[in-house]
Amino acid sequence: MRRATALRVRCPAKINLGFWILGRRPDGHHEVDTILQAVSLEDEILLEASGGEGLALETRGRPILGEGANIVERAWYLIQDRAGRKLPGIRVTLTKRIPVGGGLGGGSSDAAGFLLGADRLLGLAIGGADLMGLASRLGADVPFFMRGGTARGTGRGDRVRHLCPAPPAWIVLATPPVAVSTTWAYGRARIRLTLGRGAASMLAAALGHGRWDVIAPLLHNDFEDVVLPEFPAVAKLRRALHAGGALGSLLSGSGSTVFGLASTMEHARRLAERAAAEGALVHVVRTTERGVAVAGQP
After folding, report:
1. Which of 288, 298, 296 is closest to 42 using CA atoms?
2. Angle CA(210)–CA(224)–CA(261) in degrees, nearest 5?
């Protein structure tokens, strides 16, 4: 079979239905327990054989903040090391739609999408546990995006166990014009030694009921105690979604995006209008049961 010379990969965002910080690990990372849900807002990666050498990366759409290598470039270095040989050059066009610094996992999803796409484009046949191992080295959320859906992450968040799918829902993502540094948020987070896994297990069990009226009261994020007092725009969005009758609303990850669960598409539109009136960038999305997906040749 002739190998494809170009592949397009769709990379979904995520929200955290629950997030508990349990302590600090000997390796310096935090021990967490989190329930993740993939949603239909997506970045897109186009991978093409370049005929040259190395990786040529172009980004479009939302600007990527920070200095140093992009996570896609880091993924390229890892995949080269794993191959143990010089690889054919590839050209990557990353189109960013997921807000950066919003707690929606866009960078992690992009890394997972690149790993999967490069493995197939270059015919490396890494797959399986080895590919998941590379994903874990890139970041705590990256393994989740290899499959997506609804899952529980423990350890650094990289030990992923998939759960009964969350019931379908309309979700409003509201992102204010601020970004929250994950490092900053972890540096100020309180560690709740008496909570965590018990509460996460309750939320995981509630998902099995398939009803948001059972699930929503158990939504929780330890980062809210840190982010909401320091970022008034985020707190204001949280209040606006609650006042609009959201079935549940919560900060996603370390922020700054707040999400609200809606009962219908019309309800979601009303919530979106409220959030937009507060100056937020708004996306109305659905839950999805998949992770990064190779869409084939463009």
Report:
1. 288
2. 30
User: Pick from 177, 148, 178, 174: which is nearest to 246 by CA?
Assistant: 174
Residue 236 among the catalytic residues: no
Active site residue 86: no
- pTM score, two decimals? 0.93
* Structural domains of the chain sorted by starting position, each given as residue range(s) with its CATH number in brackets: 6-162 (3.30.230.10), 170-286 (3.30.70.890)
pLDDT digits (tens, 9 = 90+) for 217-259: 999 999 999 999 999 999 999 999 999 999 999 999 998 999 9
Candidates 141, 158, 222, 236; catalytic one = 141
**pLDDT tens-digit profile of 162-220?**
999 999 999 999 999 998 988 888 888 876 654 556 899 999 999 999 999 999 999 99
Evaluate whether 55 touches 90 at the Cβ level (below 8 Å): yes
Indicate left, alpha or beta for 253 from its phi (over 0: left) and psi (-120 to 50: alpha). Answer: left
Residue with tokens 């790993």: 115
- Given 14, 33, 110, 236, which residue is catalytic? 14
Structure tokens at 289: 């049961």
